[in-house]
C-alpha cells in the first residue's frame, strides 16, 4: 500500500486460527458501555497484547475470558469448546494478576504446587513438575524460601510458574510488570517471552505500556472506547497505524492538520501551517486531513519530497538518539529523532526538515482538530 494509513487488520498465522475466538463481547456498567461488540481471534501459541489507556476495556475483556466476569452479550470459544458460561476453575486458563496473588503463608515450592494438589495429582507427579517449572523461571534455588522474603521480580516469576505448572491451554496476564522498576521490567519481558515460547503456551497480555507491547507481542490489539482500533503485528501497528488514535497512542509522531488542495494519480497535495505537503492517498479536494510522520523518518537538511522549516523548541538527550521538538501552531506537533544534535542548533534556531513520500501518513482529520486547520486556499 501507499503512505496513507490503512484499516486492514493482520490475521492469525495461516492454518492456526481459531484456538481462541471472542465474538461480539459486550459489557456495560450502569450507563457506561465498557465493551462494544469486540471480536478477536487468537491462534494457538500466539502472544497477543491488549494495549490501551485506562478505561478502554482491556482488563474487562481479559476477565471475561478468565470467567471472572460474564459478558452481557457475545461468546468465548477455547480450542473448539464454548466456555462462555463455565466457571473459572473449569476453563483450563491460567491467570497472572498485577498483584501476583501468592499465598503469603506458603513457601515458593508450595505456592507453585497448589494448583496441582487441588487437581488431585499424586505427590510423585507434583514434585518433578514443580521443580521443572521453577527451573524454567530460574527460581529453583529459592524453592524453600518464604514468598514474603522475595523481591517483586522473584514473586512475579513464582506467579508465572504457578500459572504454567497446571499446563493451561491459555495464559492471561493482567499488567504483571507494572509494579517493577524499568530495568527489572525489561528483564522480565525477555524472560516471559522466552518461557512462553519454550512451553508453546497461548497468551493474552494486558498492558498500557506501548514499549512493552511492541517488545513482546506477536500481534497487538490497540483498544479505545471498548473497541479494537487496530489489530496487527508490532511493525504494522507502529509503521502503519490505522487510525489517528493508534498513531497517537503508539509512538511519537509529527502531526499536522491540513486541507486537501488537489488529488491526482494516487497522490494528494495538502495545505498545512508549514506549507504544502504531498502524500500517497485518495481524498476529495477540500477534505480536512491529518498528515503524520514518525520522528525517526524526519531528517535535518536531508533528502525528501516533503520539506518544512520549523524553529527548534527543545532537544532531549535519549542516549543513542536525540529527540527534537519544534515550535508549532496549536493542534500541530513537529518532532524529529536524530543521532546527533546538528552543529549550532539551539532553541529558537530554524531547521530545515525533510521526509519522504512513502513515510508520510494521512488520516481523516479528527473533529477536535478542525479548529486548527489553516485558512482554506483555492485548489492548486
Quick summary:
This protein is α+β, with helices and mostly antiparallel strands and 380 residues long.
Dominant shape = elongated
What would you say the CATH architecture of the largest domain is?
3-Layer(aba) Sandwich
Q: In CATH terms, what is the fold-level topology of the largest domain?
A: Rossmann fold
**SSE order:** EEEHEEEHHHEHEHEEHHEEEEEEEEEE
- Cα distance, first to last residue? 25 Å
Name the beta content range. Answer: 25-35%
Mean pLDDT: 90
Strand order in the largest sheet: 6-7-8-3-9-10
Helix content: 10-25%
Poorly predicted ranges (pLDDT <50, ≥5 residues)? Answer: 1-8
Q: What is the CATH superfamily classification of the largest domain?
A: P-loop containing nucleotide triphosphate hydrolases
How big is the Rg?
24 Å
The beta-strand count equals: 20
Helix/strand/pairing category: alpha+beta
- Helix count from the secondary structure assignment: 8
CATH class of the largest domain: Alpha Beta
Largest sheet properties: 6 strands, mixed
Task: Write down the domain tally.
Answer: 2
Name a few traits of the molecule.
single chain, 380 residues, alpha+beta, Rossmann fold, OB fold (Dihydrolipoamide Acetyltransferase, E2P), 2 domains, 6-stranded mixed sheet, 5-stranded antiparallel sheet, 8 helices, 33% strand, elongated, disordered N terminus
Amino acid at each position: 500500500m501507499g503512505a496513507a494509513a490503512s484499516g486492514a487488520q493482520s490475521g492469525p498465522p495461516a492454518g492456526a486460527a481459531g484456538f481462541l475466538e471472542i465474538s461480539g463481547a459486550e459489557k456495560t456498567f450502569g450507563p457506561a458501555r465498557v465493551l462494544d461488540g469486540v471480536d478477536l481471534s487468537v491462534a494457538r501459541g500466539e502472544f497477543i497484547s491488549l494495549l490501551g489507556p485506562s478505561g478502554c476495556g482491556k482488563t474487562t475483556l481479559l476477565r471475561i475470558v478468565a470467567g471472572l466476569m460474564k459478558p452481557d452479550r457475545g461468546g468465548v470459544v477455547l480450542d473448539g469448546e464454548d466456555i462462555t458460561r463455565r466457571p473459572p476453575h473449569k476453563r483450563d486458563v491460567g491467570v497472572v494478576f498485577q498483584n501476583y496473588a501468592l499465598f503469603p503463608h506458603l513457601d515458593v515450592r508450595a505456592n507453585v504446587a497448589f494448583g496441582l494438589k487441588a487437581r488431585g495429582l499424586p505427590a510423585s507427579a507434583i514434585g518433578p513438575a514443580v521443580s521443572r517449572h521453577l527451573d524454567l523461571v530460574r527460581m529453583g534455588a529459592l524453592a524453600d524460601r518464604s514468598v514474603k522474603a522475595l523481591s517483586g521480580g522473584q514473586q512475579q516469576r513464582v506467579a508465572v510458574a504457578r500459572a504454567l505448572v497446571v499446563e493451561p491451554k491459555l495464559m492471561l496476564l493482567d499488567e504483571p510488570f507494572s509494579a517493577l522498576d524499568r530495568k527489572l521490567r525489561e528483564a522480565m519481558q525477555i524472560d516471559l517471552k522466552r518461557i512462553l515460547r519454550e512451553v508453546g503456551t497461548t497468551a493474552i497480555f494486558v498492558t498500557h505500556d506501548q514499549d512493552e507491547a511492541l517488545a513482546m507481542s506477536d500481534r497487538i490489539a490497540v483498544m479505545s472506547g471498548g473497541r479494537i482500533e487496530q489489530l496487527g503485528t508490532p511493525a504494522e501497528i507502529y509503521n502503519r497505524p490505522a487510525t489517528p488514535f493508534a498513531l497517537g497512542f503508539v509512538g511519537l509522531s509529527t502531526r499536522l492538520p491540513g486541507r486537501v488542495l488537489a488529488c491526482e494519480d494516487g497522490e494528494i497535495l495538502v495545505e498545512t501551517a508549514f506549507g504544502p505537503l504531498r502524500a500517497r492517498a485518495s481524498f476529495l479536494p477540500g477534505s480536512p486531513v491529518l498528515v503524520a510522520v514518525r520522528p525517526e523518518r524526519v531528517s535535518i537538511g536531508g533528502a525528501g519530497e516533503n520539506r518544512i522549516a520549523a524553529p527548534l523548541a527543545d532537544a532531549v538527550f535519549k542516549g543513542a538518539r536525540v529527540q527534537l521538538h519544534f515550535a508549532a501552531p496549536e493542534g500541530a506537533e513537529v518532532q524529529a529523532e536524530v543521532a546527533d544534535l546538528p552543529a549550532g542548533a539551539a532553541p529558537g534556531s530554524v531547521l530545515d526538515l525533510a521526509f519522504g513520500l512513502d513515510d508520510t501518513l494521512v488520516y481523516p482529520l479528527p473533529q477536535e482538530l478542525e479548529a486548527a486547520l489553516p485558512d482554506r486556499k483555492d485548489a492548486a
